[in-house]
Amino acid sequence: MTGVKIRACAHYVPSAVLDNHKISTWVDTTDEWIVKRTGVSERRISEGENTSDLCIQVAKQILEASGTAPEDIDMVLVATFTPDYGTPSVACLVQAEIGATNAFAFDLSAACSGFVYGVSVAQKFLLTKQYKNVLVIGADVLSKVTDWSDRGSSILFGDGAGGVLLSADEEGFFAERLRSRGDRVINGGFAEVVNPFSQRERGEYDFLKLDGQEVFNFAVKEASANISEILEQTGMTIDDIDFIVPHQANSRIIEGIAKKLKTSLEKFYVNIQRYGNTSAASIPIALSEMFKEGKLKQGSGKKVILVGFGGGLTWGSVLLSI
Ligand code: UT7
């Protein structure tokens, strides 16, 4: 047994819609430029809900959809780099709110790769057979760390959360390929030491800073290579894969990955037009929509690759059967 079963999947996004036209009223950009260069038309922005609030909505939906009692959850894992606090973790806040009294809970920080890393970690706990029901949620409120005066990054991001309830699956298939390169960074969020001894002003690193083109090139190159590696590792070809669910960072990145893999864009699920880049949330939001649209059905055996890439740098894929 190595597989995991997705027993339920859900997502939640704030209700406030921020479209490109509105952004173009405060930075020098246009709806046309943003759509053409990123694929994003609009994103959801929190009007006060924090990361845990989004996660709690997801967790409640999952419990209801799967008919699982909160006491039967063994572990709550939240992938995020925009937590409510340093401590308690978002996962502990979720655990408390849903009444998962028998679960242990912790957060995982791997930026846009967080959900993929989280599924991998969950699978290892399930393999021990000591844990049966694991809640994995990817969530970020990027609007907290976005520099809204920077047209190079503010156009990209949105807020959201998505998650899955995982159990072990005797017949299920699972493979993974996770990578990091800590020497190549996207800087972002609460990084500077600002205290009476540091002689530093708060500012520069409070917000996400990225070299868009460098991240773009890294993403296309490494994500496609990563998928090729996982296929080679499992003796499969791209034709054996039903869907690829990529992190939604830029529609041109997704097109670039499809081109490098010499496969049709049809295999990729894309919803970036509605949500922008929601970091750790983008893959589970996409999965949740795929279940809702009937593209994925539990027990169908469909083979799906989830591929994440982002800050750290981190990247990686898991290949699982649904
Ligand atoms: O999840 C990982 C997090 N990071 C990312 O997802 C970022 C990945 N990178 C990207 O998505 C793209 O690199 C961007 C969308 C950020 C930028 O697109 P690009 O095609 O790489 O544009 P560029 O940075 O090469 O800029 C091209 C031009 C420049 O003008 P000049 O120098 O050619 O006159 C920019 O100043 O476009 C200009 N520009 C803009 N123009 C209008 C940059 N941002 C904007 C903007 N509106 N928002």
What does this structure look like?
- The protein has a five-stranded mixed beta sheet with strand order 1-7-6-4-5, sandwiched between helices. A four-stranded mixed beta sheet has the order 8-11-10-9, with helices on both faces.
- It is an alpha/beta fold and 322 residues long.
- The protein starts with a strand and ends with a strand.
- The radius of gyration is 19 Å and the shape is globular.
- The chain contains nine helices and eleven strands.
- Bound molecules: oxa(dethia)-CoA (UT7).
- The site of oxa(dethia)-CoA (UT7) has 18 residues, from helix 2 and helix 6.
Query: What bound compounds does this protein have?
Result: oxa(dethia)-CoA
What percentage of the residues does DSSP assign to strands (E)? 15-25%
The overall pLDDT average reads 93
Sheet/helix structural class: alpha/beta
Shape: globular
H-E order? EEHHEHEHEHEEEHEHHHEE
Radius of gyration of CA atoms, rounded to a whole number: 19 Å
Which residue ranges are poorly predicted, with pLDDT under 50 across at least 5 consecutive positions?
A: none
Short description:
The chain is an alpha/beta fold and 322 residues long. It has 9 helices and 11 strands.
Layout of strands and helices, then pairs:
Elements lengths: L2 E10 L4 E3 H4 L7 H8 L3 E3 L6 H16 L8 E5 L10 H9 L5 E5 L5 H14 L6 E8 L17 E11 L4 E7 L31 H23 L8 E4 L4 H10 L11 H4 L6 H11 L10 E8 L3 E8 L1
Parallel strand pairs: 4-5, 4-6, 9-10
Antiparallel strand pairs: 1-7, 2-3, 6-7, 8-11, 10-11
This protein binds oxa(dethia)-CoA.
